[in-house]
Amino acid sequence: MLDDPGLGGGIRTVADVLLEYLHSDHRDDSLLVKYGDQLGNRAVFKRLGYLLEHSGAGTTGLIEACLLRRSSSLAKLDPSVQGTGRILRHWGLQVNVALGAPGGEWPDRWAGRYRDEPSVTATVARRLSAWVAAFPTWMAMGRARV
Q1: Backbone angles phi, psi at 136, to 5 degrees
Q2: Percent of the chain with pLDDT strictly greater than 90
Q3: What's the whole-number average pLDDT of the chain?
Q4: Which residues fall within 8 angstroms of residue 40, CB to CB, at 6 or more apart?
Q5: Residue 102 burial by CB count (10 A; 0-12/13-18/19+): exposed, middle or buried?
Q6: Which of 6, 12, 19, 77 has the fewest CB atoms inside 10 Å of its own CB, making it the most exposed?
Q7: pTM above 0.85, yes or no
Q8: Is 103 left (phi over 0), alpha (psi -120 to 50) or beta?
């Protein structure tokens, strides 16, 4: 979904799913980086790193891994959305979709989310975890887009 945020309903939905995944028991930073490497699209790491910094949910090691893997070209945060936005040279990313200020409205939407209440995003995060587990098989079968 970080490769093509439009597949996941847009970058806001992708950000919600990512945040849910990062707070789940299924979180595996090294596996996330490994699959990002296998996709071969370094814009994935720009988007991932930006979302990690923006949400405050990232670890220094994961953010550093993203910084090391980013490309030098400019990418849009959500390529499926037309329009312009500010350019973050640090990430080589054009922020063409507003998520809210860091530590502001976006993370505030999660205030009560990490209790035992079910959510649609939690369901999507579980499905994402299943997809991450199946990814090596899809790569071997040539079904994943690289």
Answers
A1: -60, -35
A2: 32
A3: 78
A4: 146
A5: exposed
A6: 6
A7: no
A8: left
- In single-letter form, the type of residue at position 61 comes to G
Place of tokens 């979709």: 97
**Residue length of the chain:** 146
- The beta-carbon contacts of 52-61 under 8 Å, at least 24 apart in sequence, are 52/22, 53/102, 54/15, 54/99, 54/102, 54/106, 55/15, 55/18, 55/19, 55/22, 55/102, 55/106, 55/107, 56/102, 56/103, 56/107, 57/19, 57/22, 57/23, 58/22, 59/29, 61/29
What is the token pair recorded at 102?
């860091």
